[in-house]
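Final paragraph of the annual report: two paired records, presented back to back.
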Amino acid sequence: MSDHIFSFGEDNFPKDSREYVTLDTDKGKLLAIALKTSGVPHIGTFTDKQMRFSYDADYKDTVDEIVKKASSDEFEEMLREIKTHKDDSSYLVLLPSVAHYLNVTEGTLRNRPNELQVQLCRMFTRLWYCDTPTIQRELTRAYTANRQTERDLEEAKEREVQQNNTPEKRETVCFADTQHRQNVLKGDEDHRDKADLADKEEVRTGLISREVIRRQAEMIRRKQAVKDKLTAEKTERERKFGQ
C-alpha cells in the first residue's frame, strides 16, 4: 500500500455549480481516466485507498454512472473471464457486449476481420468505467474508421484497375506480353542451337578420339613387328654360330 496522493483534472469549471464526491476505492486511476474520457469537467485527488473530486453538476448523470460502476464487481468478473484464456482471442467473450454498444448484431461483428474484433473488445475493457454514450462513441469511431479504411483500399484498387484499363495501358501490356513471348521463343531457339553445337562437338570429339586410338594401335603394331623381326634375326645368328 502507498499513501502517495495523485492529482488529476483541471480547475476550469464554475465553482458555483459543483458536485463533490468521496469514494473509498482503489480504482482511482481508472475512474480519473473515465472522467476525462467521458468529457466531465473535474478536479480531484486519489490514493490507493480513496478518491475525492468535484465536477460540473451539469454532468451528474455521467458521473453517477461512473461511480455506480466503481461500486460493482462487474469489471473484475469480466477480467477473470478473460484471463481464463491464454491469448488475445479470450477478449472475444466480450463480443456480444461490444455488438450491443455498436447497435449491430454479434454475427455482423464476427464477419469482420478477427484483428478488428479483438481490437474492439480490448478497447471496451479500457472504456468500461466510462458512461454509455462515451463507450458507444469511441467504439463506433474505431469501427467506422476501420470500415472507411477498407473502403478506401477497395476504391484505390478500383482506381488502379481503371487506370490500367485504358487503350494505351492495354497496348503497353500487350506489347510487353508479345516481347516476353518473343524473348522466350528466342531463348528456346538459342538453347536448341547450343544443344546442336554441343552434339556436333561431341561427335567430332568422338571421331578424333577414335582416329587417335587407331593411329596409336598402328604404331604399337609396327613397333611389335620390328621387335619380332630383330628377335628372329638374333636367334638365327646365334643358331649359325652354334654350328
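The closing record of the year follows.
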Amino acid sequence: MDAMIPTDTPTSLAIAAALTVASVFLAVVLGLRLARRHPSDVRIVCYFFSLTVVLTVVVAMWASAGGAVDRDGVFHGRLGSGLNSLLRALLDVNSSLNLLGAIACVVVLPQLASYVLGGLFGCGTAPILVGRTLQFFAWGLAKSLIVASGMLGAMAGIGSAYSWKGWSAMGAASMSATALVLAAMAFGVLYLYRFQLSDAQLATGAGNSPVRTHLRSIHAWMTRNVRAS
C-alpha cells in the first residue's frame, strides 16, 4: 500500500523556510484586511482549519491503533485503502478547482451569452445568480485550500511524532511550508472575492464613478426595448 505521506522531496530546508515566512506574512496581511470588514470570513477559515487538524489527528491515531496504518506510515487492508483514497481526494485541490469552475461556467456563461445576444436586439436580460455563483466558487475553493492546508500541517506533525520510516526534517518542513502556502492562498481567494469581484459586481449600483456610468449606459442600450415595453 502507499505510504501516508511522500518522504522524498526536492525542497530544501532553506526554500521551505522562505516559503514559510512569505506565506505567514501574506496570510496575516490578508487576514487582517478581511477581519476589518468581513470578520466572519476569518472565523470560518480558522474553524475549518482547526476542525481539519483535529479530525486528521484523531483519524490517524485511530487508524494506527486499528492497524490500518503501520508504524512506517503505510496503509493496510480495505480500511487503509479507503483512508488513502479519501486522503488523496481531499488533497486534490486541482480537481476541486476544475469542478467548481465547471459549475460556475455552466451557471454564468449561458446567461452572459444570452444577455449579449439579446442585447443586440435591445432585449437583453441581466444575468441572475452571478453574485451567488461567485460566492459559491470563492468559498468552495477557499475551503478546499484550507482543508488541504490543515491536513498537510497535521500530517507533518503526526509523521514526526510516530517517526515514520523515511521521515526527515526536510520532508516535515516541506509539508509544513506547503500547508502555509495553501492557507495563504485561501485568504487570497477570499480577499479577491470580497475586495475585487464583489466590488466589480456592484459596479452598476449607486454612485457616479466613470466605470459605473459607462456600465449603466451599456446596460440601458442592451435593454432598450425591454425598458420601453
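The two ends are 68 Å apart (CA to CA). This concludes the annual technical report; the extension proposal builds directly on these records.
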